[in-house]
Each structure stands twice: as C-alpha cells, then as structure tokens.
Specification:
389 residues, binds fe (ii) ion, 16 helices, 52% helix, five-stranded antiparallel sheet, alpha+beta
Amino acid sequence: MSEPVAFLTAFAHALATMTLYAGGHPARELAIDAAYCELQDLQADTPRPLFTFLGDEIVYGRLPLRELKAWDWSRRLDQAGIQRLEFEDRVGREEFESFLDDVLARLTLSAIDTSEARQLRRSSIRYGTVAVRGDVDEQPLQTATITYSLGEEVDTVRWLQEEAKVRGVVSLTEAEAVVRSLTLAMHAGRHLVIPMLQLKEFDQYTTTHSLNVAVLAMALAEALGLSGPDVRSFGIAGLLHDIGKVRIPLEVLIKPGKFTDAERALMNRHPAEGARIILESEEQLDLPAVVAYEHHIMLNGGGDPTLTFRRDCHQASKLVHVCDVYDALGTTRPYREAWSQERALGYLEGRGGLEFDPELVATLVRMMRVWEPHIAVMHDEHAPVVPGA
Ligand SMILES: [Fe+2]
Ligand SMILES: [Fe+2]
C-alpha cells in the first residue's frame, strides 16, 4: 500500500471509530494515533501532502489515486465541503485530533443538511495549520501556477451554445463536465486558483464570459462555505445564465454603440428565453433556469424582467448577478476600456443594498483582494499568464 493510501485508510478508520467512541476511549485514541503515525510517515517523504476530493476521484498532489477506487469517503468529504486537504509541516498530535473532530462535525452536519446546519458549519471550522481549501484568511499567499489551458472547455461551451441555438436544448451532461473540469483547474495547485479567460477572437455569444461567471460563482460559493455539490450547481447556473442570448438577433448582440429602445427590449428578452431553453431541456436543470430568469433582477426589484409580484430572488441568482456584472466590467467593450479590479469592486460596493446583495458584494470584494495573486488570466494562445510570475 502506498503511503498516501495508507494514510487515507487510517484517516477514514479514525473518523469511523470516533463516531462510535467518545473522547478518551482507548479504541478512539488508538485509531487517532494510528492515523497520526501514518501522517508522519507520509510527511517524512512529502512534508506538505495535498489531497483533493472530487466526487469519487481522489487526487494526491497532481496524480489521481486509483488504488482507492471503491473508497466512499471521498464523495462524503466532497459533499461535506472538504474538497482540498493539505497538511503543513509538523502538525501536532492534539491539533490533528481537533482537526479530525472538525471533519467529523462537517460530515455529520452535511448528513443533516438543513440551512441551520450549514450556518453552523460555516462558522465553526478552524483549522490552524491544517488547511482545508485555501481559507480566505490564510497568509502568506503564494503565486499560483496552473497548467490548464481550458481549450476543451471553450469548445464544449461553444457546442452547448450551438445546440441551444439549433435544437433549443442544453445538455446537463456537457454542462456538468465543463464545471467539473473548471473545479479541477481551480483546485489543482496548493491554493485555490481563479482562472479567468480572455479570448482574442470575437466572442458573439460570450463564451469566455460564461466560463468566467461560472468560475467566479463557484469561487464565491466556496468562500461562503457552501458544500461541493451546491458549489457545482451554482457553477452550472453561472455557465448557462446567458444561454438565452442565442435567440437574440446577431445584429443586436454585436452592436458596438448604444441600443435603441427597440433593441434594448429585444436584448432584455434573453433572461426569459434562457429560462425557456433550459426548462425545455432537462428537469434537473431547474436551478439554472431560475438563475437565467433572475440574473438581471436587482435587489430592489429593478432590472429585467419585471416581476408581477415582487419577491426575493434565489440566492444563486443574486450571486450570479454580482459575478456577472463584475466580469462584464472587467472586460473591454467596443465603447469602453476594461475597468480595473478595484474600480469594478468599488462600483459593486457603491450599489450594495440597492442593486446587489451587500453581503455577497462584501464577500466578493474580500475574496478578490485576498486572492488576487491566485487569479490566472488565460489567453487563447493556451498559455496562462499569472500576475507576478
Ligand atoms: Fe445576461
Ligand atoms: Fe451575463
């Protein structure tokens, strides 16, 4: 058995034993000791081991761990919001035990899975030197490097848009595949990376924008402490939010200047058209349909479409709305230059409480400032350009 596999096996055994025996019981202590020993053995070769759990897939460093194919803990950890597990050098025995307690609390709460439990889970996790998924408070930050080009994802999104245009449907399987791949790109390194695409060629249906909004929506959902499956459904919603644009006449979509009233009215149909396409495609895509419909509705009820009966929008819609505007401001348009990160964040902050949910804006601002070194701007030459690198 390889060292990482031996550690994960002992780690799972310790968690299972801890659910059976209270603190101080010899069986519990033995199981924790055994897992701690395995960790020390592992760290003798690899001082900072890193595991990534994505559904059934386990990645150790950058390599998939195939020996643990039937290990059901990966999915459980992922669903509990633990997708990345990284140990710093010299973790103490006590610290290791309290980390196991935290993991167990997360697993238990995710099994109950009420919104109350999520709140609790969000506020009660403290890992210290054992870091689970780059905490936004984590310091010091290091420059991220990534090896993904996202070329295939761009092609898949273009294919999705073509299907929506020609056949009027979107495929859940393909959308899920793109989001899973983006998740992998974001979690491939030691820290979370936010890959932002900038394609040089003309992008009539906003392919890059859709991918960027998906990435931002997932990063923001993670920063809010949402579970892995929720993060990915927010990602799918972000990816498909503008799919209705395939039904807007091309001359309106690509018009460089200001819209006439008639053109504006046509453009404003894309949320409802998007929701229609998604609803006609797959029953399981109900959240993306809601988000497509609501992503231009402001917190104060303004925007489009106008709701006949005023109600609160879904959390995912408010989140995608913030990410949508942030990405749009950061992109060069025919009539204006791209805004700097600070200017775009300042704009969102100024409209928090009116147009945008202020709590979401505050989290995005904090996330973008702290994670700035982790933003990898990717061009279509397939070479990621990392600031500072
Ligand atoms: Fe839109
Ligand atoms: Fe958009």
